[in-house]
Amino acid sequence: MDTSDDPTPSEMRLIATPADDRERIEQALAQAEAHVTRMQPSPATRHLKGALESCRRVLDGWSASPPTEAVLRALRERVQQTLHIARTTSPTVRLRRAG
């Protein structure tokens, strides 16, 4: 049995860092923004844009004050919900055929 302080391979775990969370949230936010940009002007589109702008402001504020776990979880959920709505309501983009 290994008595050193180093974890064995079976004990190693990946720990998400705030930088990882920030990157994932930024990617989801960018995807949602791309979907919303393609949507026709409407009250729903304005609502989604407002939600995304709010999330972006929270994300930009992280440099001044790191988020708590509760804030991080809430932001992650809000961005995911907004992305889901944007994906299901935005027009699809047709890919060009190589020819």
What is this structure's SSE topology?
Layout: H1 18-37, H2 43-60, H3 69-89
Top keywords for this entry?
99 residues, mainly alpha
Structure classification: mainly alpha
**Beta-strand level of the residues, as a percent range?**
under 5%
Shape: globular
**Helix count from the secondary structure assignment:** 3
Uncertain spans: 10-15
Note the run of SSEs as H and E. HHH
Mean pLDDT: 79
Strand segment tally: 0
The major beta sheet can be summarized as: none
Distance between the termini: 63 Å
Helix content: 55-70%
What's the Cα radius of gyration? Answer: 19 Å
Structurally, how many domains make up the residues?
A: 1
Describe the protein in words.
The protein is an all-alpha fold. It has one domain. Helices cover 60% and strands 0% of the residues. α1 packs parallel to α3. The longest helix has 21 residues. About 6% of the residues have low confidence.
Structure summary:
This protein is mostly helical and 99 residues long. It has helices at 18-37, 43-60, 69-89. It has one domain.
